[in-house]
Input
Amino acid sequence: MSQDEIFQKVATTLVDALGVDEDEVTKDATLTGDLGAESIDFLDIVFRLEKNFDIKIPRGDLFPDEKLFSDARFVKNGKMTAEGLAELRQRLPFADIDAFAKNPSVKELSSLYTVETIVKYIEGKIR
Amino acid sequence: MRWIWIDRFEEFHSGKSATAIKMVSRAEDHLYEQTPLYPVMPHSLILEGLAQTGGILLGEANDFKEKVVLAKITSASFFDHAVPGDELRYIAKLVDIRTEGGLAECQVLKNGTLMAQAEIFFAHVDQSRSQEMALPQENFVFGQGHLSEMIKKARAMTPRDSIDTTTT
Output
């Protein structure tokens, strides 16, 4: 499956899960900021990606497990520590952690996820 | 008044599908709150009935060990409205069950004719989150005894030839 085909399928998934128009789903659109995703939508997105790509997405594999943020080694004063960033790099190799590291506030973590992030994740899963 | 929006189950296939019946009675207050001169059942309460049908189906699939909450209604379309005297048949089919929740495709038949369809997404509340949210330990909305009785009756009424013997 080409990257473009993966993108088209991811776009369809997001249109169905978030009720957005197809032309809103660009590669650099963020899930929360641009497409209006809320926390519960992430679970719905995981369900649909599994179904549409016939893959299994273990908990914490695409979107980090909340337990990560309650670990004092990884988060201090609402910001990810160096150890926390290293953990994120290991757990989410498909995400742009370098960009997030400039302002590693936990609140900003959702901005890590663009449509392209999802496409990269799927690419890694099916190849 | 209790927050119960189904009267009984007509069919119950564990982990697969359920059909519940709601009779719209002129005695119900909600009919007069939206349009006082023309009593209709609000669509939001019909969705609640569908969610209760699907939510109980999902809860029973896990032996009610999980707290099931309505997470979101991904889509809903209504083609008609319900008035006193109508019989609503809520049909929920579980299309996906995971440890985190489930997805149900639902239909409403009004006196046998398709009146609405919806896709409803349910989540299991984590035990830790459940304590944070101060949710009761027992299943809320329906008591366990009440539910067991409803499901038992539904199974007794479910036509034998439509029971899938691979599930219980």
Chain A touches chain B through eleven residues (CB under 8 Å). The radius of gyration of chain A is 14 Å. Chain A is about 45% helix and 5% strand.
